[in-house]
Structures are given as C-alpha cells and as structure tokens.
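To illustrate the input format used throughout this study, we show a single complete record. The first block contains the structure-token representation of the backbone; no residue identities are included at this stage. The design step must infer an amino acid for every position from geometry alone.
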C-alpha cells in the first residue's frame, strides 16, 4: 500500500484524512500521549484492518476516540462519575471504560461488553475526528510489541506502507499512553497508569484504586486484556536493576554488548559506554516523555544485546514510567 504522508497537515489534508476514515481506511494521527492508528470505530472491517496493520492479537480491544465528551452517550452507558471525570480531565490523556452500547462492533471491544472512550486534546486529532463525523478506534501506531511512537519518524518507521495516511504536525508532549480507568469494577480502578495520576483521579472519584496488574504479572482474568502482553520492548533484552547508583554501577557488566538506561542526574553511570539518559531522577514527566524514544534509539545499534535500566520512582507519573519499563523488561527486575 502507498502511504500518503502529511508532515504538517493543512486543513484540506486533514479533510482528506477524514474522508479516508469515512471510506474505511487507516489514518495515523498525533495525540498528546502517543500517535494513534485510526479507523472508523463503527465499521467492523475497518477495525479489522487495524489489527492486521499492527500484527495485534484480536482479543485486545481498541480505544474509541471522540471529539467531545458528550458523544460517549451514543456508544456507552455513561454515569455521573464519567461526567465528573470528563469535566476535570477531558480533553486530555484519560480513557474511561464503561458498558458498551450495541452500535460498537465486537471487533473493537475485543469481544467484551465494555468500551473504552477518550477525547484527545491535540488539535490535529480533534479536527480529524470532528471532520470525519465518526468515533475513531485507535491503538498506538506501533507494530505490536514495539515501543509506542512519540515522534513522526517513529510512525514512518513502523507504519509506512501499512496505513493509508500519516498525519504529523505535533510530537507527543506526554510520551506515554493515556491513563485508563474502568467504571465497570466494584470501585473505579486504574488499569493503566499515565499522566493523569491516581492522586488527581481521587480528587474526583475518591474511592479509586489501582489494579494489582499494573506492576504485577498478568495472572488469570485481567481486567484489561492489554496487560497480558509483553510490550514496549526494544530489540535488546531489558533488565531493571533496583538499587542505588553505586550498586548499579558495580552490578552492570562492562562489556561492549551492554546498553545503560539511566537518569540525567546519574553522573557516574552517564560515563559508561552506550549510556543513554531520559530525564532527571526526580523528573517523572520528562522520563515519560522520553522513555519510548530512548528505548527506540537503542534499536539503532544492533551490537547492543542487553540494556540495564535504572528503576524509576513509583509515585505520581513515575508509576506510568515504571509500568511501561517493567513490561519492556518482561518483568525482569533484580535487586542490587
Ligand atoms: O494514549 C492512548 O491511549 C493511545 C492514543 C493513540 O490514544 N492509545 C492506546 O491504545 O494506547 P492501545 O490500543 O495501545 O492501548 C489500549 C489499551 C489496551 O491495553 C487495551 O487492552 C485496553 O486499552 N482496553 C481497551 N478497551 C478496553 C476495554 N473495554 N476493557 C479493558 N481494557 C480495554
Ligand atoms: Mg499500544
């Protein structure tokens, strides 16, 4: 397939992309979190194309993107909590799961009776959805298993030849995918941590909890199918070392096939061969923004077979960084 790429899309080009979505095609677009690979969420065949393009397991459901929070009314059985969350955090990096209405095809929900909705804040995304006049189902626009794309170069790497249109315009400010909260459990439950933190959610829904699967291995019936899969992984094997900078320094092999993923403030580790940094130790926002880009950059050097990573904080946005890194590492965390 030939992919049309609009690096800085003008209004008429967003119009073309909207037309492509209406006709059942695939369009990549930037959001504040990561780039999305979008298709008409009401068209079963269009949604199927998403799974094919990504190589994604078909039981892993898609998020439905809307231009206004109130549109959720058409696709889900909304609740008071939904409107409270929408008022506080939408448009923005929050996805809410509710009982689905029948118009949403099972291909989109991965066979579940719930649906995930999100209203992205970036203008290209907003305009695309608005002009299409449809809800847009969109997972992150990476090949399944790879780090999510946060820059237009990443989507070109993964999706050139697989999508009809790629829209650029803005690189992703947040850098990790949206926070996912379900309103279908006994208490509002965070299934995937993101830029909107547990603390912020609790100001609106005080009894919100974080699912145990966020930092643990999937076992049994996870609330979110996506939690089952190894994710976000670069080609090299990732190992997280949990300990001080000194202990980390002593524990890492000093051989040539090793990469180091550490913080800007790790003065000693930064001097090691193949060291890359992704924000100061205390700057979880910057770590979130840079993590996937940094993981992808290790792929450029195929002499690197193992990446030793520092353990991020689990507080605030740090929990999102830790959640992604633990999955990139296939849950391989060692105390040092
Ligand atoms: O920031 C984001 O959310 C990005 C941008 C493009 O909007 N999208 C994204 O989509 O991260 P994706 O497909 O990579 O991740 C969606 C996650 C998956 O883990 C999936 O299992 C979960 O959402 N999910 C979707 N619908 C669900 C549902 N009905 N119940 C439980 N989990 C659901
Ligand atoms: Mg994804």
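Output of the design step:
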């Amino acid at each position: 397939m030939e992919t049309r790429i609009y690096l800085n899309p003008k209004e008429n080009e967003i119009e073309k992309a909207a037309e492509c979505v209406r006709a059942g095609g695939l369009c990549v677009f930037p959001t504040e979190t990561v780039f999305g690979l979008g298709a008409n969420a009401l068209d079963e065949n269009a949604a199927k194309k998403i799974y094919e393009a990504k190589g994604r397991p078909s039981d892993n459901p898609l998020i439905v993107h809307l231009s206004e929070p109130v549109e959720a009314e058409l696709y889900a059985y909304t609740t008071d909590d939904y409107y409270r969350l929408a008022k506080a955090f939408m448009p923005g990096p929050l996805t809410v799961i509710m009982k689905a209405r029948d118009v949403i095809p099972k291909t989109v929900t991965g066979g579940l009776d719930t649906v995930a909705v999100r209203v992205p804040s970036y203008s290209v995304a907003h305009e695309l959805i608005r002009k299409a006049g449809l809800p847009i189902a969109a997972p992150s626009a990476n090949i399944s298993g790879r780090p999510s794309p946060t820059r237009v170069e990443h989507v070109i790497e993964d999706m050139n030849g697989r999508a009809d249109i790629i829209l650029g315009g803005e690189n992703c400010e947040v850098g990790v995918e949206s926070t996912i909260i379900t309103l279908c459990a006994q208490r509002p439950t965070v299934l995937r941590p993101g830029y909107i933190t547990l603390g912020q959610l609790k100001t609106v829904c005080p009894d919100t909890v974080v699912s145990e699967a966020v930092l643990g291995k999937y076992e049994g019936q996870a609330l979110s199918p996506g939690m089952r899969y190894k994710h976000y992984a670069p080609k090299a094997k990732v190992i997280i070392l949990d300990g001080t900078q000194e202990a980390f320094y002593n524990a890492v092999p000093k051989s040539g096939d090793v990469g180091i993923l550490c913080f800007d403030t790790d003065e000693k580790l930064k001097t090691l061969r193949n060291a890359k940094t992704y924000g100061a130790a205390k700057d979880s926002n910057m770590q979130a923004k840079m993590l996937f880009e940094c993981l992808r950059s290790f792929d450029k050097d195929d002499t690197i077979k193992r990446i030793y990573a520092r353990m991020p904080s689990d507080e605030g946005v740090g929990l999102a960084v830790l959640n992604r890194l633990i999955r990139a590492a296939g849950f391989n965390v060692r105390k040092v």
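Structural context for interpreting the output: The longest helix spans residues 284-298. The chain is about 30% helix and 20% strand.
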